[in-house]
Amino acid sequence: MLKVRSAQLVKSKLLFVITLVSAHSFASAAFASTAAAGPDFSWPAANVAALPDAPTPQSTQQTPPPPQTTPSSQNAAQQVGNAVQQAGSAVQQAGSNAMNSVSNTANMVANRSLTFGERVLDEVDAGYLGYRGKWDVTVFRGEHAKPYTKLDKIDYAGHEEWSPLTIFEASYSAGYEQLRDATPHYGHDKGAYGERLGAAAFRQGAYRLFGDGIFPALLHEDPRYYRVARGSLWYRSSHSVLQVVVNHRDDGSVGPNYSTVAGELVSNSLPLTFYPSGDVHTSTVVRGVAFSLLDDAALKLFREFLPDTLRFAKLVPQAL
Known about the structure:
The chain has a domain at 124-312. Helix content is 65%, strand content 3%. The protein is built from 10 helices and 4 strands, in the order H-H-H-H-E-H-H-H-E-H-E-E-H-H. The chain has helices spanning 2-37, 45-50, 71-110, 116-128, 150-161, 164-180, 190-219, 233-242, 258-269, 282-312; strands spanning 138-139, 225-226, 246-248, 254-256. The strands form 2 sheets. A two-stranded parallel sheet has the order 1-2. Strands 3-4 form a two-stranded antiparallel ribbon. A hairpin with a 5-residue loop joins strand 3 and strand 4 (254-256). Helix 6 (164-180) packs across helix 7. The protein is elongated. The termini are far apart. The model is unreliable at 34-52 and 105-131 (pLDDT under 50).
């Protein structure tokens, strides 16, 4: 029974394959005859002439109208443009100023015939005051100080008279004399301190006028202090104190400091006109001049080592 069904299945499959092969052969023959006959797919000429022209296709999208500019929008656009132009000019000016500043600083450093270590000291020294002005007391190492005219020296004396350091010197001197009951002998009460303070202020003012103004103008001497800045402690200290009796001239040379000595003589002689009668004698003047010169030496040491002290305390830049 199983064999009969298998035979029938094989027979049916063979018939199906024969049928597919016959259908394929018939289709191939029909396609070949049609291609040989050359079917005409063209329209007759009469039909072509009778056809109307095809209409030109039109786009359904409409072109939007150009935007209309109102006066307010025009003004706003103009303001924005002006603001942008001004901002550009400001940036250009700021850049130009910055380049000029850098160029000036480079030229200033290049003009100094200094080693790197000296330049660092000079620039730090100049920075500890924040600026360098015409009436600065100290001339730093390597700085090309412009000589004072005669009127400049009188103005310099006036600036020195109103400096905080001068006021401190007068107060300190009056306090020391009050504590020791030194010359001038006004006593120990509060009124005595006021009289001593007035006398000390008079001496300071007289010295500033003559020692820093009149005598330097007449003798062509420079009343400013020239800082040493480099060398050993002894070298700097000795050269600093030496400027009490040796100073610079307007032409750049060095010579005896006549202005300081003469100024101290005048400033210690004039107070004899109002000192107590017991203090009016030559020894008062000599002693006053000696103490004033020592005070001047201490002040020059202070100006010499103040930048180092500030640098050690990290109150100014250590290097640039």
